[in-house]
Amino acid sequence: MVYNMENEVKIVVKWSGKEYEICNLSESDSVGTLKSAIHKETGVRPERQKLLNLKLKGKTPEDGCQLSTLKLKQGFKVMMMGSLEEDIADASAPPEDIPDVVNDLDIEDEEVAIESREVYLAKIERRVREYKINILNEPRPGKKLLVLDIDYTLYDHRSSAETGYELMRPFLHEFLTSAYEDYDIVIWSATSMKWIEEKMKLLGVSTHSDYKVVFYLDNLAMISIFTPKYGVVQVKPLGVIWGKFDQYSSRNTIMFDDIRRNFLMNPGNGLKIRPFKQAHLNRDKDRELLRLAKYLKDIVHEEDFNSLDHKHWEKYRPRKKDKHTVKKEAGNSGDNRDTSGAR
Ligand SMILES: [Mg+2]
Asked: Which residues are in the FCP1 homology domain (predicted)?
């Protein structure tokens, strides 16, 4: 394809719900020039701009890269993430510090601004396309989906102990065995895959005979989003799973995590559990997983999880049984765990 160097390039930048037309660029201009032009229009400094769908062979182009090499259509819409200096100055501590330092209830009612969602959906789509999932055990037809965090959810990763096994949350295997009857299980941790595999081996999860995990997701399946209160944070968007597997959706997926911000892209599907910390003090007291196992059983007959409010999971009472719930429960009397005293 031959490009006329004098061709004007028209680009539209979409940022924070508004569109900005960038004119007076030619194909011989560079990405750096484009960024300066965007700066003029939006006030976002070049080094703060993340031009999400501006790609050269799948990668972010260098500033020196000529616009002609990107082969953009006239009126191409660039989705930008970026923040104004004054917003950044207001943002609090870096995200790594949030889990332990900030009471994460603060984030409870924060929602992802509708205008940003499109940008994030593009990120999620990219994860759906590019993130490789290694299936450990095939999904089972008709099962719902349970997505589990590791740190402080299944395991106290900060306390010291003789063996890692001592840091396991009480009733972990009972919980997973019970959940497995109705749910496919996925583990999602904001760390590396190698670490997840090691941990699951250590806890005896990967080799357990009474339940199987469908797959693990690591930090690379997460996306970063901008929140007014915390700046840029990493979240776990369930859309990555829903995009890859037709059988899972917001109707049948529930996710447990001790950090609510991980749910920001899908707040209705997240249940914030109490963190398991100071294992040596709490090992004899912590019954969270038993209670959660019961909740998972109680809600399993709900046609659509969107009708549930997991914030009030402890107050949930199953609706009156209809014919098929009775039938289903009759088949589930095989275990002798007592979860009745857990509430
Ligand atoms: Mg955690």
From this structure: 139-299
Which residue has 């609090």 as its token pair? 92
Which range among 20-34, 122-136, 148-162, 166-180 shows the weakest confidence by mean pLDDT? 148-162
What is the per-residue pLDDT for 339?
43
**Separation of CA 186 and ligand 1 centre (Å):** 14
Mean pLDDT (whole number) for 61-70: 91
Integer Cα distance of 277 and 286 in angstroms: 10
pLDDT band at 299 (very low <50, low <70, confident <90, very high): very high
* Assigned token pair, 298: 């109680």
What spacing in Å lies between the alpha carbon of 49 and ligand 1's midpoint?
A: 30
Half-sphere exposure of 200 (CA within 13 A, CB side): 29
pLDDT computed for residue 114 by the predictor: 54
CA torsion sign for 131, 136, 140, 143 is: negative
d(CA 209, ligand 1 centre) in Å: 25
The mean-pLDDT minimum among 33-37, 251-255, 325-329 falls in 325-329
Residue 116 has pLDDT above 90, yes or no: no
Question: Could you tell me the distance, in angstroms and rounded to a whole number, from the CA of residue 172 to the centre of ligand 1?
Answer: 15
Distance 191 CA to ligand 1 centre (A): 10
Report how far ligand 1's centroid is from the alpha carbon of 326 (Å): 35
> How far away, in angstroms, is 291 Cα from ligand 1 center?
18
Is the distance from CB of 275 to CB of 260 less than 8 angstroms?
no
Residue 313's nearest CA partner among 282, 269, 283 is: 269
Q: Which pair of tokens denotes residue 111?
A: 């929602």
User: What's the 166 CA to ligand 1 centre distance in angstroms?
Assistant: 17
Cα separation, 236 vs 219, whole angstroms: 8
**One-letter identity of residue 72:** L
**All domains of the chain in start order, with CATH:** 8-87 (3.10.20.90), 98-342 (3.40.50.1000)
Structure tokens at 284: 């004899």
Q: Compute, in angstroms, the gap from residue 274 CA to the centroid of ligand 1.
A: 10
Q: Report whether pLDDT(81) > 80.
A: no
The Å distance, Cα 126 to ligand 1 centre, comes to 25
CA of 244 relative to ligand 1 center, distance in Å: 24
